[in-house]
Amino acid sequence: MSTPSNRRLTTLALGAVPIVALGGLMSIDHIPGTDISLTVPYAAQGPGPTVDTLSSVEGKDVVEISGAETYDTSGQLNMTTVAVRTNMSLSQAIGRWLTTNDTIVPLETVIPTGTSSEEMQEANQQAFVQSEAAATVTAMNYLDIPVHVVVAGVMDDSAAVDRVKPEDVVLAVDGTEVSEPAEVQELIRAKSPGDEVTLTLENNGQEREETITLGEHPHDSKIPLLGVTMSSAPRDGMNVTYNLQDVGGPSAGMMFSLAVIDKLTEDDLTEGHFVAGTGTISEDGTVGPIGGIEHKVEASQEAGAELFLAPAANCEAATSRDHGDMVIASVETLDDAIHAIEDFASGAEVKTCAE
Q1: Which pTM was predicted?
Q2: Of 251, 257, 300, 330, which residue is the catalytic one?
Q3: Is the dihedral of CA 250, 123, 22, 104 positive or negative?
Q4: Average pLDDT over residues 245-269
Q5: What GO annotations for molecular function exist for this entry (predicted)?
Q6: 60 noted as active-site residue
Q7: Cβ–Cβ < 8 Å for 152, 129
């Protein structure tokens, strides 16, 4: 993706508020050639790129599955993004407002006051990893494939850094068996900063226990922080990897789940149609609302999408602008999304946001 020379462009997979937890990998570098002291405290949100989760980027599948039989797919399942421009001069902000469909918003809705670029990047990375984990769990649940919790990364300044390693499998927390990242998070959140937690871990067939003192979350000192990002992997040796860089937040979750399901099932889900969409995904299959959907709808229509999957809670915003002949379906669960695609492909009536 090219970056305009006179401003900083960042791609976000925006989720529901608060943005600090769900935004993208944002840079707050000042615009080249612009005195940062003269920039305005506003950001411009507009249509960002759409990415086909069934395709490849730089030679790698966006959703890569190994250790299991996969099937050919047709059509497209595009995740959508919002482009955010920050550190604009007054004239640049006015220009975006007058000449584009961008939404001008207070800067603090994109970069919360008192948040550093490093903290923002860390929060966005964690949100995206959690989204990937939820997408895998949801797809495996739909396909009745058991999963376990895998450590994706460990924060350098956390107490876990010398105790926990990437690719460790988390078997239990304080003796309570876990199989999904959300279960680990729930058990950790029940504690307080300074409390100890004992993790039962497994790596290369070797089981061990590690006791860790919980830290404080950087944005709320009352929330305990383990300092570990977690993903999910099927227990039977299958591995799902998401090869998409420079996008943060959880709103690609639903589309990732759909891509995994399409690749692992013999039936062709899209039957050659161009489907786009957005929405967070919970491990129970619930599709959650996101931000900036009007821009995602615009980008999808311009890209040629025939069907757009919108979280039900976002329907009013999703249909607030002209979307041509593109059908906008209202979905509340992963099952709703699959039924909408199947109904559209068969020519049956689709539950739309207009209903």
Answers
A1: 0.76
A2: 251
A3: negative
A4: 90
A5: ATP binding; ATP-dependent peptidase activity; serine-type endopeptidase activity
A6: no
A7: yes
